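User: Can you write out an input/output pair for a complex, sequences first and structure second?

Assistant: Here is one pair. Inputs:
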Amino acid sequence: MSIRTAIVRGAIDVAALLAEVASTANGATILFLGYVREMNDGRAVTGIEYSAYGEMAERELAAIASECAEQFGIAHLVAEHRLGALELGDVSIAIVAAHPHRAEAYEASRFVIEEVKRRLPIWKREGYADGASEWVNAGGVAHEQPAQEQQ
Amino acid sequence: MTVTALLFASYAEALGSDRVELTLAGNTTVRDVVERLRAMPGGSSLPASPLVAVNLTYAGADQRVESGDEVAIIPPVAGG
């Protein structure tokens, strides 16, 4: 069993993560990488500053991995989310899920990224080519939901 | 009693602080903490029912808050 998660500030070493889950028990390894991309909602992006409620983010990411392991029978999973100032092309999140069979590996990888999007207390401030910067998703009322529904 | 409210991202900018110590009467809920914050300068940009975590765990508006608790007001998350 090798399940590990981390919130990091430095560059994510993808090759090291792949090596970490390597096992002859597994017939499939799925690697998901999230990148800072150059366009969002029609605006030219120059970079993203990621911030977090650090202590809770670490706990939530660990909880997501634990739920994933239980739900899909995953014994080898590693996920890292990066914080700080990222440039175009930088990897913001890496998820590596390995399983004897591909179906579970794919499902586990998808589960982790969707749960991260739903509940990991991390925020990003996008910088744009015109010099402006904005919090992503901070739309206000449209995102207002009772906390209970987020469990 | 005293609780510590934590603010992040757009909410911290709106209130001009990422940490507010609040003195409250007993028998207080998450909703009361949010109302106090919304009454502060800049607080009107907080939604009436934001996501909240008490002591690192997501909590509903009716959850009781005890002295010394850390009540985090969570803006819409944008990880990944």
